[in-house]
Design a protein that fits this description.
The protein contains eight helices and six strands; from the N terminus they run H-H-E-E-H-H-E-H-E-H-E-E-H-H. The protein has 236 residues and is an alpha/beta fold.
Length: 236
Amino acid sequence: MIQMGMNQEREARLRQVEETIVACRKCPRLVAWREQVARTRRRAYRDETYWGKPVPGFGDPDARVLVVGLAPAAHGGNRTGRVFTGDSSGDFLYRALYQAGFANQPTASRRGDGLALSGIYIAAVCRCAPPANKPSPQEIANCLPYLLLEIGLLDRLEGVVALGKIAFDNILRLFRGQGRPIPGLDFAHGALYELGEGLPWLLASYHPSRQNTQTGRLTEAMFNQIWGKTRERLGE
């Protein structure tokens, strides 16, 4: 009964963080861009209503692993309202998570499509779609406190999988900002680091963007190894 109450309280606080994220208007450039994209729409989605707001994290409140990407895609998360949903990066990610047993289905098309995650929570460094997929340093700084709030509420968290160097660097930035003496660490696909007592381990992966997957820089076999290593690190 006590555990159920704690779970309900955590889920309620996560919902509060989600509501705060969705209402955010800290970055004028990103607000203008995400809303412009939502108004004009891509031809393939011209009959859809775009989300056009910041995109909160998504997943299992009891997650043992946090997955962090860069930002929503203009016609992906900015359209669907869910992280890594409705674009090629999400197709690549959720197929791998399904094969590794972290997702109940290999596809993610929209909110309410039945997708459920087990042991995984997914978030991003920046919650608004940025022009050219390049948020400014100040825009990232404005958004990082939301990620810190989510990390603080995921009280079963054991590890973080950083998708791309920007996610990797900013996870380290968050923990160093709390006064933790973490040394300089190099980003490399498959690199696994222990960050110190009381902190999650950190596993680096190339981002499943088209520029990586279509060029062969990141193959399905390479990506599957990341989730196999995640399972091993969890002792499963």
